[in-house]
Structures are given as C-alpha cells and as structure tokens.
Amino acid sequence: MTAADAHSSPASPDARAAQNASPSPAPPASGAPPAGGRAPGPSGGRRGAARLGAARETGVLLALLLLVAGTTLANSRFLSAQSVKDILLGAAVMVVLAAGQTLVVVTRNIDLSVGSVLGLAAFATGKLFVAQPGAPLPLALLVGLALGAACGLLNGALIAAARVPALVITLGTLYVFRGLDHSWASGEQINAADMPHGFLDFGTATVLGVPVLALIAAAVLLAVGVFLGSYRTGRELYAIGSEPTAARLSGIRVGRRVFLAFVISGALAGLAGVLHAARFGTVDATVGTGMELQVVAAVVVGGVAIFGGSGTAYGAALGALLLTTIGSALTVLRVDPFWQQAVDGGLILAAICLDRVLALRGTRRARAKEAPHGA
Amino acid sequence: MPLRSVRIPRIPRTPHSPRGPRRAAAPGRAARLGVAALAACALLATAACSGTTREDGESDRDAGAGASSTATADPNAPLAEDLAVAFLPKQVNNPYFTVADEGGHAAVEEFGGEYKEVGPSEASASSQVSYLNTLAQQHTDVIVTSANDPNAVCGALNSARSAGARVVTFDSDASPECRDLFVNQATAEDIARTQIELIAEEIGGSGQIAILSATPNATNQNAWIELMQQELEKPEYAGIELVTVAYGNDEDEKSFQETQGLLSSYPDLAGIISPTTVGLAAAARYLSGSEYGGRVALTGLGTPDQMREFVHDGTVAQFALWDPADLGYLAAYAGAALASGQITGAEGETFTAGELGEYTIGADGEIVLGPPTIFTADNIDDYAF
Known about the structure:
Helix content of chain B: 25-40%
Distance between the termini of chain A: 43 Å
Subunit structure (chain A): The complex is composed of two ATP-binding proteins (LsrA), two transmembrane proteins (LsrC and LsrD) and a solute-binding protein (LsrB).
Function (chain A): Part of the ABC transporter complex LsrABCD involved in autoinducer 2 (AI-2) import. Probably responsible for the translocation of the substrate across the membrane.
GO molecular function (chain A): transmembrane transporter activity
CATH architecture of chain A: Orthogonal Bundle
Number of strands of chain B: 14
Number of domains of chain B: 2
Number of helices of chain B: 11
CATH class of chain A: Mainly Alpha
Number of domains of chain A: 1
Oligomer: heterodimer
CATH architecture of the largest domain in chain B: 3-Layer(aba) Sandwich
Largest interface: A-B, 39 and 40 residues
Largest sheet of chain A: 2 strands, antiparallel
Strand content of chain B: 15-25%
Number of strands of chain A: 2
Radius of gyration of chain A: 21 Å
Low-confidence stretches of chain A: 1-45
Order of helices and strands of chain A: HHHHHHHEEHHHHHHH
Strand order of the largest sheet of chain A: 1-2
Structural class of chain B: alpha/beta
Mean pLDDT of chain B: 82
Shape of chain A: globular
Mean pLDDT of chain A: 84
Low-confidence stretches of chain B: 1-31, 33-69
Helix content of chain A: over 70%
Distance between the termini of chain B: 44 Å
Keywords (chain A): Cell inner membrane, Cell membrane, Membrane, Transmembrane, Transmembrane helix, Transport
Subcellular location (chain A): Cell membrane
Shape of chain B: elongated
Strand content of chain A: under 5%
Structural class of chain A: mainly alpha
C-alpha cells in the first residue's frame, strides 16, 4: 500500500467508500442495483453521517468521563498515577484485540476465535522463552504476530472456501485453536520464573509514566485507525459491510478484503497474546478463555455497528477502555461481588443507551439542518 | 450379573523390572493368560464377586456399605500386583492435577500396577460420569477421582463400585456414601490457621488485612474464609482487622483488578491473603510491578513454580500449599491398600503409603495428607511443581 492510495480527507464511514471505489470497472448497466443503493442516502447524508460518526465516539467518551468522575468523587485514589497506570495497562491488551476486531466487524463479519488465538500465542511466547531464555523481545513479538496471522489465515481461507458465515467458522476455530493449545500444553504451566527478567519488565515498564504496553496498543490503534479512515483498502472494508453485493458490483474484491481483515485480526490477537504473557507472567492453556465476548462487547459499545459498515477503531478502543474502567471502578467502589456482573452489564447497557440517545439527537439535528437545503 | 468376562490382564511385572507396565504382548502371553486370569479373579474376589451375590434392588447406599463390610481388613496382606489404577481428575490439562496424577503414577509404578489418566478437558460433572461408566466397563480395580460435583457423580461411582472398582476421592470429595475413601490434602482448620499465622508474622501482629478469593460461590474457599475469620477472633490476633473479602474469580485480569481495588480502597492495608493459586500469583505479579511492592505483605496458597520469581524478588516472603504429587501418591496407595484387602475403609485402620509412611483412616473414611508445607526463599528451590 502506497501513500498514493490514501484518500486525502477522512470520509464518513457509510456512504463514501462505495462512491470512491468507482474508478474500477463500472457496474454492468442492465438491471444492476446502483452502487451503495442501500447505504444512507449518498446525495445528502454525507455531513449527517460524519456528525453521527463523531457522536458515536463522543457518547462513549462522555460515559467514560462520567464514570471516572463519579468513581473519583467516591474515592480520590481512583485517579492516582498508579491507578491510571493500572487501567491503561489493563486496557492495552483489550485495545489491541478491539482494533483487530473492528476491521472484521465493519465488513459485516465477526471473529470469535481471538481469545483462543491470544491464548495460543501467549503459550507460544512462554514456550519460546523456556526453550531460548535469551530470545530478544522483538522475536517474541514477531512470533506472536506470525502465529496469530497464521490462525487468521486459516479463518480467512475457511470462510472464503466454505462460504459459511464467519460466525460459524470462527466458533469452530475457537475450539480448534483452544484444543491445539490444550494438547500442546498438556497441563503445563509456564511461570514468571521461567521467563527472562527483560520480558517481565517489558510488561510493567513505563515511559514518562505511561506503560509501554499501552504505548504499543496506542500505536496499533493509530495504525488501524488511519488504515480504516484514509486508505482505499480500509474504505473498501466499510463498503463491503454496508452492502456486500453493491461493493462487489462496484468492483471491490470482497473475498480478498475480508480475508485480509481476518489475517490482520489474527495477527493482532497474536500480538495481544505476547503482551498478555508479559503482563501476567503466568501462562497455561486457559489464557484468554472467554475474551472474545468481551472484545465484541467493547467493539459494539464503542459504536461499531455489529452488522457492519460503520464505526471506527478509535471508538472500539474507547469501548475497551470503558469496559476496563468499569471493572476497576466496581472494585474500587467495593460493589458486592455477587452483584458485580449484573452492575457491569447494567453499566454497559447504560453506556449504549447514552450513545444511542446522543446519536439519535445528532441525526435529528443534522436532518433539521439539511431540510431547508433539500426544499 | 452372575458372570462377567474377566479383564484381559497385563503381564505381571517382575518386582524389580525397571520398565513400565506397558510391555508389548509377548508370544508367551496366551500361555500365561490362564494363570493371569486366575490371579485377576482372586484379585477381584473381595470386591466384585461379593457384589454379584447381592440381591437386586438394594439401594446404592447399601451397596456401598456392603462392599466394605463384607470383607475384613488384613493389615499384613501384601499389595496386589497388576492392579489397574485409573486417575480421573476434575479436568485434564490442569497443572495442579497433572502434578497430582504424576504423583499417583509414581506410586502405581512402585507397586507394579497399571496406571492411566483419563478425564474431561472442562471441569464438569456430566463429562466425568461418562468416563466413570467407561472405567467401570473396563473393570478398573481402583478409581482415584476428584469430583466436580459431590452428588452428580454419585450414581456412576456406585455402579463402578458394584462392578468391582474401589473408589478413592482426592482434592474434592464426593458424597461419603458413594466412595470408599477420601484423601484430604489438609484439614480446612490447618489451612486456615496456617495462613493466618503467616500473615500475622508478615505484618508484625497488627494491621488491616484483606482476602483475595476465587469465586464468591467456591465451597472450599468459603469454608476456609469462615475458619480464618474464627481464627482471627483469638486474642493473639486482636490487632488484626479483616477489612474485606474480594473475589478474583480465578482469572488473571479480574484478580489484578481486585488487588488494585483493594489497595486503592484501603490505603492502610498491611497484608493480603489469597487462598487460591491463580489469585496469589496474580496479586504477586501486580505488587511486583507497582508502587505497593514490598509495602504490602502477601501470602496464601500457591505452587512453588508459580511463586518462585516473586519469592526471590522479595514480593512474597512465604506461602503455603500441600504437595499435590504427595496427594496423588497417597491416594494411589490408599486405593491399592483397599483393593488388596489391607484396609476396608473403616475408621482407625492403618496402612503404609510407600515413602510417605503410615496413615490412619479417620471418621467418614477420610485420610489427611498432613499440615500444609510452608515455602520460603530457603526451601522453595527444593520443590518443582
């Protein structure tokens, strides 16, 4: 991908991609539905959609700020340097996963295997250090990325070959990868003492008070965000999610793009596995079990439409940060443990409602503004 | 069920053979079959043959009681050779059970039996039942299991027992009427007392402490916590205040968050007890990477391998656990002693568990491994599990 492919301006998620893809062969005229036909009105909705996109993230951000403010009022130590560092560290792994998941979800697919891929990569990292205690850190990161990409490759290939919904395929590979992990580990646990100090320090190190893991997550987020927002391939992912048929008719190579999204999602899950190993220092075959649902929750809370076509990686990252902060806040507020899960779920619903209200208001205002023009 | 097909036995091992019991079938096998079959029948005589003479329609409870009361214990009986011993843990691929089962494997090798480990990859009672049924059909002599649910596996355990198997539970007991013996890792009182002693020593006898447990519904955790609270009421612990119990659900991330929450919510917290291996390792990892490391004492139940790093870097001074390998070892010997007629499972009977020495059966067929081992920087490197 060269810079020449990049669109100069960040476009609205929904409508624009299909339009911009038209340099490729025009759709056959006879009887073909117009490209982007079902995407929100290509003629007038551009600005409205942009506002909507903005409102989605501001909604989550507002929920996050409210939560932090409320918790800090109850316990001022919630905003101490250590506590903020802890929250950033906690969110780092989830943000990396959420960025990858966003790529898949905007194409109207889902990757449920990420928890297992993370577990497999975390265990591989541990194994690498047991076998080669002096292995350099970049090698570990590369191994994680490569292993994750291989898993993503398998997901993508199966989806392309079998033409079965990704939900089903990745539900299958969720168990396949976990099973591989179990048979590889066969009950073994790799502990902090088995890993080199350099690697464990990497899990807790900070630069100017910001954890290194969080910086890596931020870099990944930025890369995915720019890719989705400004690169042609990224925009095409939105077009695919908005209306796969239209995207195909307008010349987008849908299969290839979806395949790519799964490979990247797998690779990022692999990277997240290495970060997870560095952070917790203990890995066995159960690492990351159930994480896929948390990631999907984070992505949806962050305003990425589960049926594809809209949302940003930044929003998903905010969602991940919000969920992590909810978890921390509940413990700081000493919520009764029997109620924690219910409160957790309630707060997620509240965040989604707030986001929805803001989004609706945004659209209404945008419509009101457009009305005089249209008349 | 008057006659059953006799399990095709393994070739009896010579006592000092260094090789494992899984030897390839030799040409002479057929010739030895008759002898071996006789041996196997004698071996099953106490359990299986007595079972087959009972009237149908007896309740499970009677079946259990009958199996142990028809035979009388012969403390001097030699351990039978060629016993088929199966370990059925809560879950295979769980490091704790892997170590425990390996301890059992070592014991089975010592007394020349045939060892195998089977089990589900997820810790559920229903999947244990199907394994139990298979083991019963294979006429396993001794089943050593850790129950995922005390009652749900009862029916399967009892049908295995009426098929001739002796059932020893370890780690997690099944209902007493559906097993012969329970090998308890340590009494709950010992576990609670040890941890309170450790934390009191760490924090110098006074201050605020908190407990980081597994899930709010974990039976054994809650029993220990209750006993710890009782222990703290003793006058010598008057200066120690248990401020709260947090639950890390045995997940790394959640345990991290709970530890963070404890430290933010209780600025004067002096120590944390985590009676669960996942919680203890996660709390130690958190403390070692935060500003609280060394300022807040941490102890609990953990494995030496998991805690080695944190003991050496000073985050944790001491913690406790039983040796799971010893637990499996003792359970295997208890099963062999049962199957050989040395014991019947009645209170007060004694038997020798290899290098661990002599054990006495307590009330309800319970055997206690012993008080927990304390691990410190001085001895932790002597252990590998």
